[in-house]
Amino acid sequence: MRKALMMLGLVVTASVFTCLGFCQFTLIFVDPPIITTSSYEEFTVSIKVADVVDLMAWEISMSFNLAAVECVSIEEGPFLKQYWDTHFEFVIDNTAGKIVAFSTLTWPAWTGMNGSGTLAKVTFRCLGPADTHLHFYDSTLLKYSDQTSIPHGTIDGYVRYVILGDLNDDGMVNISDLVVFAEAFGSHQTHSRWNPNADLDNNGIVNIIDGVKIAKNFGKTS
Question: Less CB within 10 Å around the terminal CB: N or C of the chain?
Fold first, then answer.
C-alpha cells in the first residue's frame, strides 16, 4: 500500500509540475498531494492555482470523509491579495464533511492576476483509522475582463492514516518495525541505510526520539 501511494504521489506531483513547466492549462490542486497522518495530528494543505490569466475571483468546494478528518481552519493565501485588497469568505461544515471558500478582488482593482500561487491554506485534524480524498466537487475561476469562467482542471488531495511506528505498513506496531528501525538507526538522508519511514519526527535523522515514538505505540493495530 505504501509503495502504491508513493507511486500515486509521484504521478500526481509529476502531472502538476509538468503543467507548471510545459503547458498553459489552468489547474487547481492540493499541495502536498498526499498526506500521511496519525490520530489527532493536525496538518495543513495549500490550495493552489497554476497558469491562470486575468483572475478576478475564485471559489472552491471540497468534500472529505468525516471518519478520517475534520476541518479546523481556512485562511486566504497570498495569490490575489498580494496585488490588491480582497473580500474573503469561507464555510466549514464538519457535519456534512464539506468546506467552501471564496475570494474576489475589491474595487478599484484595474486588472486580474496572472500566474501561479496559493489561493488558500486549509488545516485539518486527523480523527481516526480512515483515509480520505480531499475532493474538489465544484470550483470556479472568474476573469476580470468580462466576468466569465476560466476553463480549468482540478487535482484532488489524499490523506492516508497510519499508526505512528508502523514502519513496514502491515497495520500493526510490533517487533518487525523495531527491526526496520534498528537497520536505519543513526542514518540520515544521504546515508546508505536511510529509511524515511523510520524518521517519525521528520527531522532528517533516525535516532532515539523515533525509537521512543515506536515504543509508545508498540502493540497497536489499525
Answer: N
Given the DSSP bridges, would you call strands 153-155 and 98-105 parallel, antiparallel or unpaired?
A: unpaired
Q: Judge whether 87 lies within some domain.
A: yes
**What torsion do the CA atoms of 146, 75, 120, 71 make, to the nearest 10 degrees?**
-120
Same domain, 30 and 125: yes
* 126 and 208 share one domain: no
**How big is the chain, counted in residues?**
222
- Positive or negative torsion for Cα 16, 18, 21, 25: negative
- Residue 221 in any domain: the answer is no
Q: What does residue 6 show for φ and ψ, rounded to 5 degrees?
A: -60, -40
| Closest listed residue to residue 104, CA positions, set 125, 84, 130 | 84
131, 161 Cβ separation under 8 angstroms: yes
Number of domains in the chain: 2
Which pTM does this prediction carry? Answer: 0.78
Place of cell 524515511: 196
169 located within any domain: no
